[in-house]
Design goal:
The protein contains 17 helices and 17 strands. By secondary structure, the protein is of the alpha/beta class. It has four domains: 103 residues, Beta Barrel (OB fold (Dihydrolipoamide Acetyltransferase, E2P)), CATH 2.40.50; 53 residues, no CATH class; 176 residues, P-loop containing nucleotide triphosphate hydrolases (Rossmann fold, 3-Layer(aba) Sandwich), CATH 3.40.50.300; 84 residues, Helicase, Ruva Protein, domain 3 (Orthogonal Bundle). The strands form four sheets. A six-stranded antiparallel β-barrel has the order 2-5-4-3-6-7.
Length: 494
């Protein structure tokens, strides 16, 4: 159990006595009932807002503030395990803070901490904003392990007096326990490189860049909330007309999360003609899982290094696309939408991009050549799309639950065009439905002209063309409405 030692007591002095106990919580919204810490209130002078310092006056871990008749010290009784290092750091740096809380029967429950500057000085890297950033990261993290290994947290040799380096140092000291063990150790080693005067400027720059990427990612656990099947069905209905069997299969695949509270063992592979809504399905699943999403377009990836990044031995080295995706998402739990998986094996560089994908899909961890650290992938849910299943290797196929997406029937295309595609375009460009009317013969002509095309993308383009032509006639010829029959549609689109 860590003990505050804010006074840097000399050898021979009595060891301080720890007055607090640690409790383990994963609440993201602190309150007086679910506080960050609990203070004693023997003097009864703690108010809703109280300004002071965390300190350790020889014997007791405490919070000191100005009372009615002088300085008052109240013991710290309980601390959320996620905040132990942060409070220790605030005390060591003698940072003035304002506590917000409420008096309870067992003490004073603190649910908010802010920095205040006395005498015009500040201690934090970015004043109160940095403190709030750390608090938000701590609140969004799970409770740490009850067995915390000892670790030397002293940082020496700070030869780079840069704000970004200082911020990373402060974050590791205050919130380092929120990181996975391997990433925390990696961060401290790279921080030593970034601060060292014994390595080249290029090495320091790469180390600093890698740290900046990794520290801005929230490394979350592998616990996922259950989904609502009815809500999932509603979201799929919004994005996809018909295809009842496809929707049912998708919900059956992802509903496993309700029992295991982990992501399904297999991702989704959606195979079907172009324009059938495969990407829309992928976005819908991300909404259902309440996860951020990113896309990988395999048709534009010719070299595995685009995915894995390049080694830091090169001056122009940079992370790969996969690592960039984590960075853009800002967290480790996300949906990877892999477009055109059937193009993954057609690499033109040194190696096969499909082999790199296997390491991402196995959930055993992914290593970027630039970052040089194993990235946990237990929170990654892959959804791939493809047109030709014959071009996908057996190892890749085995990582997915395969769902065939059929093309729409002519009758389904009629409904999609008349109820969804055309009204959507009219609404977007500010037209009323009565200004652009399509007769039954006109609708038949639209479907007939696109009988040899798959999907609905061409139908959506046809709706754009028809609506644009109607708007032109209204604005130029000053007609109130345009009615498209079969002959007009064929002349316009044929």
């Amino acid at each position: 159990m860590p003990v505050f030692d804010f006074n840097h007591s000399e050898k021979g002095t009595r060891e301080p006595e720890c007055t607090y106990t640690v409790f383990y919580s994963s609440h993201s919204q602190p309150s007086a009932e679910q506080p960050i810490l609990l203070l004693s209130n023997r003097a009864g002078q703690l108010k809703h807002h109280t300004d002071g310092l965390f300190l350790n006056p020889v014997k007791r871990t405490a919070f000191e503030f100005k009372g009615q008749e002088g300085t008052v010290s109240e013991d710290i009784l309980k601390i959320d395990a996620r905040f132990v290092s942060l409070l220790k750091w605030l005390g060591e740096n003698h940072i003035n803070v304002r506590l917000s809380g409420r008096v309870r029967e067992d003490g004073y429950g603190v649910y908010k901490i802010r920095e205040i500057a006395f005498g015009g000085g500040v201690k934090l890297s970015a004043e109160d904003g940095f403190l709030q950033f750390m608090i938000e990261r701590l609140l969004s993290s799970d409770a740490p392990s009850r067995e915390i290994p000892d670790e030397d947290e002293e940082e020496t040799g700070d030869s780079m007096k840069l704000t970004s380096i200082q911020s990373i140092t402060d974050f590791l000291n205050c919130a380092g326990r929120t990181l996975p063990d391997n990433i925390r150790l990696w961060a401290r080693r790279n921080l030593a490189v970034a601060k060292s005067s014994e390595v080249s400027q290029e090495e320091r720059r790469h180390a600093q860049h890698a740290l900046s990427i990794m520290m801005n990612i929230q490394w979350k656990g592998n616990y996922f909330q259950a989904i609502d099947p009815e809500e999932a069905r509603r979201i799929l209905d919004e994005e996809l007309y018909g295809m009842e069997r496809v929707k049912q299969r998708i919900i059956e695949t992802i509903i496993q999360i309700n029992r295991t509270h982990t992501l399904p063992a297999y991702g989704l592979l959606l195979i079907g003609p172009a324009g059938t809504g495969k990407s829309q399905i992928a976005y819908a699943v991300a909404r259902i899982l309440k996860l951020p999403w990113t896309t990988l377009d395999m048709s534009s990836i010719n070299d595995p290094e685009q995915l894995t990044g390049s080694s830091r031995i090169y001056a122009n080295a940079k992370p790969g696309i996969i690592m960039d995706a984590f960075s853009m998402a800002g967290e480790s739990n996300l949906v990877f939408i892999i477009n055109e998986l059937d193009k993954a094996a057609s690499g033109k560089g040194n190696g096969n991009p499909a082999d790199v994908l296997l390491t991402l899909l196995d959930n055993l961890g992914f290593t970027d050549n630039y970052i040089e650290c194993m990235i946990p992938t237990v929170g990654v849910y892959p959804i791939a799309t493809a047109n030709d299943r014959e071009q996908i290797s057996a190892p890749l196929m085995s990582r997915f639950a395969v769902i065939e997406i059929p093309d729409y029937t002519p009758e389904e295309k009629k409904v999609i065009f008349s109820r969804y595609a055309l009204p959507k375009v009219l609404k977007r460009i500010g037209m009323k439905e009565g200004e652009c009317v399509l007769t039954d013969e006109g609708l038949e002509a639209v479907i007939e002209l696109h009988r040899n095309t798959s999907g609905i993308r061409d139908l959506e383009q046809a709706a754009e063309h028809i609506a644009a032509n109607a708007l032109y006639q209204i604005e130029v010829d000053h007609v109130k409405s345009v009615v498209f029959d079969g002959k007009m549609v064929r002349e316009l689109l044929g």
